[in-house]
Design a protein that fits this description.
This is CTP synthase N-terminal domain-containing protein. With 241 residues, this protein is of the alpha/beta class. The protein has eight helices and eleven strands.
Length: 241
């Protein structure tokens, strides 16, 4: 099983779900059996009680569970049928661990975030990733994991051996009309991007692919700068327009 983590920087809502779905569609077209998991940092058990004004519409799966709308993108793009277990939330994990503690599965130990919560998340991901989700009924070969929110929200699947697709928003000054790479390099000008890359590395991950959300196609000069300062090969730096 291969795992591919799709995460963003310090700005949420930059299109990680569409990027995840698109990668899944490409991999499936190349013969891979693909599955998807969405991890959200909120304490709600599921998305059923969310206000649509705050979080958008809720998507209802075949099993009746109410989940994040991104799972609907996964199902349509990759032609899979997902379950409630493919949407992990902090609340769901805490509830799962609390129930195990009540059943005495921890043998009287003090239940803590590390290792009990982190182990529960990893076990959940590995277990769900191996479920067949398409008409072929084959065990998936690639699991796309989208980490909702921002990079600093959730310390979770970092212990898994995974590759990372990292997304950041590339600012464009309207009067100049040119994407600026300084936010990635300079803490003084805009620390957001530098913090994003630093947070990712602090969790033991180096981005393998870098998508930049921008208004126009990146020039070769900008791609070269991003590759240099983010330590990503230039052929793995792309525009997400």
């Amino acid at each position: 099983m291969k795992y591919l983590l799709v995460t963003g920087g310090v700005i949420s809502g930059i299109g990680k779900g569409i990027v995840s779905s698109s990668i899944g569609a490409i991999m499936k077209a190349n013969g891979w059996v693909v599955t998807c998991i969405k991890i959200d940092p909120y304490l709600n058990i599921d998305a059923g009680t969310f206000s649509p004004y705050e979080h958008g519409e809720v998507y209802v799966l075949d099993d009746g569970s109410e989940v994040d709308l991104d799972l609907g993108n996964y199902e349509r793009y990759i032609n899979v049928t997902l379950t409630k277990d493919h949407n992990i939330t902090t609340g769901k994990i805490y509830e799962h661990v609390a129930q195990r503690e009540r059943r005495g599965e921890y043998l009287g130990k003090t239940v803590q975030v590390v290792p009990h919560i982190t182990d529960a998340i990893q076990e959940w991901v590995i277990r769900v990733a191996e479920r067949p989700v398409d008409a072929s009924n084959r065990v998936p070969e690639l699991c796309l994991i989208e980490l909702g929110g921002t990079i600093g929200n959730f310390n979770i699947v970092w212990a898994l051996k995974i590759s990372a697709v990292f997304m950041l928003a590339l600012c464009q000054i309207s009067t100049v009309g040119e994407p600026k790479t300084k936010p990635t390099q300079s803490f003084n000008l805009c620390k957001a991007y530098q913090v994003s890359i630093r947070e990712l590395r602090a969790r033991g991950l180096q981005a393998d692919i870098l998508f930049c959300r921008c208004n126009s196609e990146l020039s070769p000069h900008v791609i070269e700068k991003l590759g240099l300062f983010c330590q990503v090969p230039t052929d793995r730096v792309g525009s997400d327009i």
